[in-house]
Design a protein that fits this description.
alpha+beta; elongated; five-stranded mixed beta sheet; 5 helices; single chain
Length: 365
């Protein structure tokens, strides 16, 4: 089993809110082709020129739709799936006529907000139903009919702004109010409801989610963060890393880590909460409203299987070396867990410091 750790990075982002009522307006699907071009640019040297590469957009085709086009994604080699209002359409490319022909449609109860494709399975973010999973079956017979069928749906409602596959049988979603969840696709196709795996609340309005990092991976070894070998090999590359953008201009990074690393960090949090109130390691401080965190906000209870990186930041950046040793040595369980994480280390506090350093650099988007 692997767990999740929550980190926060500040980043400037321009966003737009999804329309509350999508059914009253129409939309248009416009297709362009991208063509690579070359042009020569004169240099200061007489008689010399520099060849520059560029791109041009060429209009190909357009089609008016009865509802707003909220998302689209490629499907297979010659198909396109499009979310139009509360319907999902599959269009096929007609090379001869240079247009897209509508193959099949699946109507949902509420407006679709996002699309993601894995093979011929399609995950659809819903304005009120959280997430749905559709399956497209292309016809083998040229004269036959393609099919798009609703296979699974979440047990809980919510305005999902984005949903992505992180494995063949796992889907991660984020709703408008900052609730991030992971659901599992049942092994048997006869089971309609998606299995709830985990959830956590970011306490901010969210806009989009990306699987994987925004920048190149750090070069330092991350054996302590790796998933156990018992996990499915169907996970996408970098599926242990989720980046969520928010209306406040922040990026939240969620990292899935090994069970051993999670136990070390969980015990570290518990140990810090048991320190005296005025001790530098104690993550909360007294105020007129009771105990609040160091940012002046009320403390919150973290859901099971998650860790708030704010507490870990206090240990890594606000404590002296002697204070770190004092915190770790006050808990024999924490000491044993840290040494098991890094058997070559003779210092439990040093092993934890290295783990937090790796986490901090890994969580940078």
């Amino acid at each position: 089993m692997a767990e999740w750790v929550l980190w926060k990075s500040i980043f400037s982002q321009s966003t737009t809110q999804f329309a509350e009522d999508m059914r009253s307006t129409g939309g248009r699907l416009v297709i362009y082709s991208i063509k690579q071009t070359k042009r020569k640019s004169r240099t200061k040297r007489a008689g010399s020129s520099l060849e520059l590469m560029g791109y041009e957009l060429k209009y190909v085709w357009e089609s008016d739709r009865r509802g707003p086009v909220s998302a689209l994604a490629s499907l297979g080699d010659s198909y396109l799936v499009v979310a139009v209002g509360s319907s999902c359409l599959v269009l096929k490319l007609d090379v001869v006529q240079k247009r897209l022909i509508e193959c099949c449609e699946c109507r949902l109860r509420f407006a679709a907000t996002s699309l993601d494709v894995r093979g011929y399975d399609i995950v659809v973010g819903s304005q009120r139903e959280s997430v749905n999973v559709l399956r497209f079956t292309p016809s083998v017979d040229p004269n036959g009919c393609d099919q798009l069928v609703l296979m699974h749906s979440a047990r809980f409602g919510g305005h999902t702004v984005d949903a992505r596959f992180i494995a063949d049988d796992l889907v991660a979603g984020i709703d408008h109010n900052g609730f991030l969840y992971v659901v599992g696709i049942p092994k048997h196709s006869t089971e309609f409801a998606l299995d709830y795996v985990l959830g956590m609340h970011l306490q901010t309005e969210c806009t989009r989610m990306q699987v994987g990092r925004l920048i190149q991976k750090p070069s330092q070894p991350q054996h302590a963060l790796s998933w156990s070998t018992g996990h499915s090999t169907s996970c996408l590359p970098d599926a242990d890393h989720l980046v969520v953008s928010t209306l406040s201009g922040a990026l939240w990074t969620l990292l899935r880590i090994s069970e051993v690393a999670y136990e070390v960090l969980r015990k570290l949090e518990q140990t810090m909460l048991k320190m005296p109130v005025l001790h530098p390691a104690f993550p909360l401080v007294p105020s007129s409203e009771g105990l609040v965190n160091r940012a002046g906000k009320g403390s919150r209870i973290q859901p099971a299987g998650t860790i708030d990186g704010t507490y870990l930041t206090i240990f890594a950046s606000q404590l002296t070396r002697d204070e770190q040793i004092e915190v770790v040595s006050s808990s024999p369980d924490l000491t044993r867990a840290a040494l098991s994480l890094d058997p070559e280390s003779n210092s439990a506090s040093a092993a934890i410091a290295r783990l937090l350093y790796t986490l901090n650099h890994t969580c940078i988007c």
